[in-house]
Each structure stands twice: as C-alpha cells, then as structure tokens.
C-alpha cells in the first residue's frame, strides 16, 4: 500500500513538472508572435500620497492578451521572457508605451507625479540599457524626472558594481529609482545607504497582515523609520483595507497603492479615474473635508 502511494506521489510530481515545462515552452513560443502582433497592453495603478491625498503617479503593469490562452499574468511570462532574452524587446516596448501614455495624463496628477516602470535585471545589465531609457523618454518627449524605475534588490546583491554604476548614471539624468518588493529578499538594511535609490516599496506580504500580526507591523515600522533616516520615501503596496491605510498613515508612511484606492486599469479608465478624482478633490477643498 505504501509503495503504491509512493509511486502515485511520484507520478503526480512527474506530471505536474511536465505540465510546468510544457506551459513554459508554450509561452516561450507564443511570446515572439505576441511581441510581433502587439498582444501586450499596459495597465496602470495610481499611487496615493498619504500626507496630502494627492495622486503622485502610477505604476505600469504589463498584461498579455493571448488569442487562445486568454489573459496571461506577468507572473507567468516575465520569468520565461527573462530566460529567453525576449524581455529586452518587450521591456523597450513597455518603456516607450508607458512614457507616451503618461505624457498625456500627467497634468491630471500632482506636479511631482511619476510613471513607475518595472525593470528586469536582465535588461538593466545590458550595455544598451541607459540608451534605451533615454530613447524612450525622447520618443515620448518626456523629461527624465517624470520616470521612476522599479527593481528588486536581487540585482543589487548579484551584480552590485554594475547595477550601482547604471543606476548612478540614470540618477544623474534625473530618473528616479525605487526598490520593489522591499523586505522579501536579502534586505540587508545597511546596504541601502550605499545604493542610489529614492524610494522603497514595502512588499504586499507585510501590508497583508499589518493590522493582525505584530511582527509584520514591526517590520513595516522599522522599514519606514530606517528609510526616512536615509531620506528615502516609502510606498506601501497592496493596501486593501482602510484599517491598513490608517495604520500606515499613523506610522508616517508616505504613500500607498492598492485595491483600496484602485485596481490596475486600462489607459482609458485611468484617464476617467484621474478626471473624476481631480473633480472631487477640488470639491472637497471647498468643503474642507478630507479625501479617502
Ligand atoms: P509588482 O511590481 O510588485 O506589482 C504589484 C502587483 O501587485 C501587481 O500584480 C498588482 O496588480 C498587484 N496589486 C496591486 N495592488 C494590490 C492589492 O491591493 N492586493 C493584491 N492582492 N494585489 C495587488 P501584477 O500586475 O500581476 O504583476 C505581478 C508582478 O509582475 C509585478 O509585481 C512585477 O514584478 C511583474 N511585472 C508586472 N509588469 C511588469 C513589467 O512591465 N515589467 C517587468 N519586468 N515586470 C513586470
Ligand atoms: Mg513594481
Ligand atoms: Mg511591488
Ligand atoms: Mg510585489
């Protein structure tokens, strides 16, 4: 009986592994025609300033509308695209699209608002990376100070010298840098001081349990306090409840993003969202009532 069970387990494991590989292969083959046939789309999630209730930018999140597979999550295709190198042309397209779209909506947001674009380490480490950034900005006619690049700390840990060199060059151009998913990787708090970074984004996993778990609250508070000592801004990601928002506000967190304010949305929906937000905030100013 035990032997039978063991064998079944093995079989199950084997099949699921095959399924994983098949899925990755399918995605790899489909990615190229996806790039050629413009099956990608950017959605945008607004970022909200907790001190003054202004909208201070949005994050571009890529979506893949595959004709037969349907909507494929970036979680499923970004890593495949990284392994094949297809992330580089895809990332160039994302940068161009995001800068162009932002140029049209930026006047509906705070004057310091930025478009935040996720960058893969594979692209960052390419020799053409900095040129790709300036090309995207030039093509959109957007000043560098409106662009923020999000990257995870793994690239800083794996290739610290090259990463710091590139980021320093970008910062000199006026581009802003955010550390994404902060707290999930190695997160040596001390190394932050040597990085050319402007913003820290606290990972959603800590925000999730913020109100119920003392440890997550302690970590979040420590990140906020340390970041502020280093003169960095803090954005909390994945804020879903008003209790989480209130907690973050009390801790002095600078900004938030999450389903509580808005889900990622198409460019058209974003424009409508920003217009109606602007209208209500102007109304609220007259009535002196706080927003959200
Ligand atoms: P990320 O950069 O940390 O993006 C935040 C993710 O959290 C997004 O998932 C977003 O839809 C989701 N999210 C936002 N607010 C909430 C919330 O309140 N609750 C919950 N449960 N989720 C929330 P998405 O769009 O599926 O993207 C997943 C990841 O894929 C991103 O994580 C990023 O690492 C990667 N990614 C997305 N777009 C791009 C891109 O254009 N380029 C690259 N290189 N990576 C991307
Ligand atoms: Mg991000
Ligand atoms: Mg993030
Ligand atoms: Mg995340």
Automatic annotation (TrEMBL):
Keywords: c-di-GMP, Phosphoprotein
Keyword Zinc appears in the UniProt entry: no
Location of the EAL domain: 24-278
Catalytic activity, EC: 3.1.4.52
Superkingdom of the organism of origin: Bacteria
One GO biological process term: phosphorelay signal transduction system
Gene Ontology molecular function, alphabetical: cyclic-guanylate-specific phosphodiesterase activity
Name of this protein: cyclic-guanylate-specific phosphodiesterase
The species this protein was found in: Idiomarina seosinensis
Section covered of the full-length record: 177 to 468 of 582
């Amino acid at each position: 009986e035990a032997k039978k069970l063991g064998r079944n387990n093995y079989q199950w494991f084997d099949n699921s592994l095959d399924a994983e590989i098949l899925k990755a292969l399918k995605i790899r083959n489909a990615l190229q025609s996806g790039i050629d046939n413009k099956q990608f789309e950017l959605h945008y999630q607004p970022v909200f300033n907790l001190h003054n209730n202004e909208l201070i930018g949005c994050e571009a999140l890529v979506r893949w509308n595959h004709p037969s597979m349907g909507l494929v999550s970036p979680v499923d295709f970004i890593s495949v695209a990284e392994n094949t190198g297809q992330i580089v042309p895809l990332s160039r397209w994302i940068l161009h699209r995001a800068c162009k779209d932002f140029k049209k909506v930026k006047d509906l947001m705070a004057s310091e608002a930025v478009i935040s674009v996720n960058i893969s380490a594979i692209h960052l480490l390419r020799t053409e990376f900095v040129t790709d950034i300036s090309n995207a900005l030039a093509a959109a006619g957007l000043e560098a100070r409106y662009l923020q690049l999000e990257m995870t700390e793994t690239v800083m840990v794996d290739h610290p010298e090259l990463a710091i060199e590139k980021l320093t060059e970008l910062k000199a151009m006026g581009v802003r840098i955010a550390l994404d998913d902060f707290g999930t990787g190695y997160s040596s708090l001390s190394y932050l001081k040597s990085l050319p970074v402007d913003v820290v984004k606290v990972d959603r996993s800590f925000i999730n349990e913020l109100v119920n778990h003392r440890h997550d609250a302690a970590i979040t508070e420590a990140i906020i306090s340390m970041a502020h000592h280093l003169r960095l801004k803090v954005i909390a990601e994945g804020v879903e409840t008003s209790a989480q928002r209130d907690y973050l506000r009390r801790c002095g967190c600078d900004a938030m993003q999450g389903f509580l304010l808005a889900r990622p949305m198409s460019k058209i929906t974003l424009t409508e969202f920003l217009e109606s937000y602007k209208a209500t905030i102007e109304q609220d100013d007259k009535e002196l009532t706080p927003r959200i």
